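hey can u check if this looks right to u? its 293 residues, i copy pasted from the old doc so theres a chance i mangled smth
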Amino acid sequence: MEDDSLDVLRFRERLGLPGIVDVHTHFMPERVLRKVWAYFDSVGPLTGMEWPITYRHEEEQRLALIRSFGVLRFTSMLYPHKPGMARWLNGWAADFAARVPDCLHTATLFPEEGVEVYVKEAVESGARVFKSHLQVGAYDPNDPLLEPVWGLLAEAGVPVVMHCGSGPAPGRFTGPGPVGRLLARHPRLRLIVAHMGMPEYGEFLALARAYPEVRLDTTMAFTDFSEGFAPFPAAERGRLADLGDRILLGTDFPNIPYPYVHQLEALERLGLGDEWLRAVCYRNAEALFGPVV
């Protein structure tokens, strides 16, 4: 693992970066994370492929590792798959952020009675980013129960990282259609499309062009692993450059089937230049979440 840290350090030194901001990392209650890992191990239907976990360690070791990579800010992306989970997960995430100050206070939601109440509570207690997982949660972002929540988050300016693309396996409500309808009603919602909207890259880039508050995170996109089943279209690279101020580094650490540095190398080999890389790996997140102190 020391070699991993050195490889990331060399990447940062080449770019003159003080560190990295990773907006898509997973820290969860241990029993929840173990179930997630077991799902990956079983080649569950939402993955459908072999998916070894590279950083399968206890929490303290995972924290030490991500810090050794020079990641100055990260998130505790967590999500419910059924009603009654989100409020409990939010309580855990608030405690985690309190004891791990370099983690952006993360929260989540689910279309259920009381969702507006606990989302408001999370925002008022300092949540900086929310996670919405349309694939795992199997819900429509246009569910009427969520309507006041999107308005609340748009008004508060709190970003939402949403897994809304149809990769690695489609869900009933994934794809650009449901998200497009959501944004038509809430154009100021700070939506961060996870995984670059994989595999509907072009459609989600078009939504980002249409809505100035829409961003995309790089999680697993462009890597050898993802290029094997959902290659990014070469014709869309121009849009990556044009929207360079609204693309944020995400990795899915620790649940990745390759070393952390591979995500960074995959971005570098796009050939979009050092300034683009500096923006994606640090400056864009700094502009969104404020300076790292």
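The radius of gyration is 18 Å.
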